[in-house]
Write a structure and sequence with these properties.
432 residues; mainly alpha; ABC transporter involved in vitamin B12 uptake, BtuC; two-stranded antiparallel ribbon
């Protein structure tokens, strides 16, 4: 058979390659780092279309969902978009969002943690009993509670990573066991009230009333984003790999600045910047840095994307698995403390109800894949915002809890469907 010459003069493909031609509607696999940014707006629009056709939707669906939800509820009742309701919403999503961050870490491995609700209730009970009942120093009691959440996560990770018990079974058993331990810790009274002057209550209820605080926080956040972007571009340029030009970094910074200062303006129109929201955002920034800028974060994505490939690359898969469940337990503890501070008590119902459903829904709706290897800690914020907005809007409209559950479940199903279709599209395009 006659062969054609390849680009280097060697043998190429046979002349008869009709059976190897790609379909006309196939999306070519393009390395996004090699996008020709010199094309300007046309190049970015072409890249956006390529990503959409390839199923790389990112946070686009959830951003669209937030806009639609706010538009619908805002048109039905003007109170929904009031500064007071949006400020209250920013506080109410913190506890759920904190726990959802831990779920994001677990989902990145393609696993699930069904115990985070019970763990959050247990850690809230530990703090309440140690501090309020036994008189332990409140900061020490807080550290013990958070350490307790981390220890619980390590136990789950040990049985999953070392013993080989499926994470679903381990955490389902943990959900029952830790709920029972919480009841045992609380004792016969069943409820321990947390005074308003304790650190847990203050973490949730404190609000910085000075308008300057919110604007300074926004300015610092924007400045850190700009600094990190420029530093990353310089590092990539020095390594002679594609990097974002200064013009693009400037445009991204302007968008972030517009959102940050708009949020600060809305918060200042009511009372000011809630401490709970500030703590949540700081933790998101730190954990986002861990996931995207550290070797450990890259190992998590590697294990979630291809466990066998990660093992062959020398990554300690058991360590990554155990540590991720420890992170989930720690974030469940922190979220549980914020939820306890919100109602100023720890009771037999702490961590129960629809909390587990909401935190898993927040992580998935925010864009973290159930199949592992794709997601971001910011998914927790976006997803919690969607869940909280739906609940807030329906509460204002006087919708019953039964209908709220059905709507939230439908939104969760829609998010999973979008994730599945996106993954299928990426496989068809050769990008998954």
């Amino acid at each position: 058979m006659k062969h054609s010459q390849g680009p280097t003069g060697g043998p190429g493909l046979p002349d008869d390659t009709s059976g190897l031609r790609p379909a006309e509607d196939a999306v070519p696999a393009v390395d996004t780092r090699l996008i020709v940014r010199e094309e300007g707006l046309r190049g970015y629009l072409a890249e956006f279309r390529r990503r959409t056709r390839s199923g790389e939707l990112g946070s686009l669906p959830v951003v669209v969902a937030v806009i639609v939800i706010w538009t619908v509820f805002g048109s039905l009742n003007s109170a929904f978009l009031s500064a007071q309701n949006l400020s209250d919403l920013s506080q109410q999503i913190v506890g759920t969002g904190m726990i959802a961050v831990g779920i994001v870490f677990v989902l990145l491995l393609g696993e699930i943690d069904l115990s985070v609700g019970s763990v959050s209730g247990l850690c809230a009970a530990i703090f309440a009993v140690l501090n309020v009942v036994n008189g332990m120093n409140q900061w020490l009691a807080l550290l013990v509670a958070v350490a307790g959440g981390a220890a619980v996560g390590l136990i789950h990770g040990f049985f999953f990573a070392k013993v080989g018990v499926p994470a679903f079974v381990v955490t389902l058993a943990g959900n029952l066991a830790w709920n029972g331990l919480m009841l045992q810790v609380l004792g016969s009274n069943g409820t321990v009230n947390i005074p308003a002057d304790t650190v847990v209550s203050k973490l949730y209820s404190t609000i910085f009333h000075s308008p300057a605080t919110a604007y300074v926080a926004a300015a610092v956040g924007v400045g850190l984003f700009l600094f990190a972007s420029l530093l990353d571009a310089r590092r990539r340029q020095a390594a002679r790999v594609p990097f974002r030009p200064v013009a693009e970094i400037g445009l991204r910074t302007l968008v972030i600045a517009a959102l940050a200062f708009a949020a600060a303006y809305i918060l200042n129109r009511y009372q000011g910047l809630p401490l709970a929201l500030l703590v949540f955002l700081i933790l998101l920034v730190l954990l986002d840095f861990v996931l995207r800028r550290t070797r450990y974060g890259r190992q998590i994505f590697a294990v979630g994307g291809n466990i066998e490939g990660a093992r062959r690359a020398g990554i300690s898969v058991p360590f990554v698995r155990m540590s991720v469940f420890a992170v989930a337990g720690t974030m469940a503890a922190i979220g549980g403390l914020f939820l306890a501070g919100q109602i100023q008590s720890a009771s037999q119902t702490s961590g129960g109800g629809n909390l587990l459903m909401n935190v898993i829904a927040a992580a998935v709706i925010g864009g973290t894949s159930l199949f592992g290897g794709r997601g971001s800690v910011w998914s927790a914020l976006l997803g919690a915002l969607v869940i909280g907005s739906i609940q807030s809007g329906m509460n204002i409209m006087g919708v019953s809890n039964a209908v709220q559950f059905m709507i939230t479940g439908s939104v969760l199903l829609a998010a999973v469907v979008v994730d599945s279709l996106s993954r299928r599209t990426q496989k068809a395009a050769g990008r998954a």
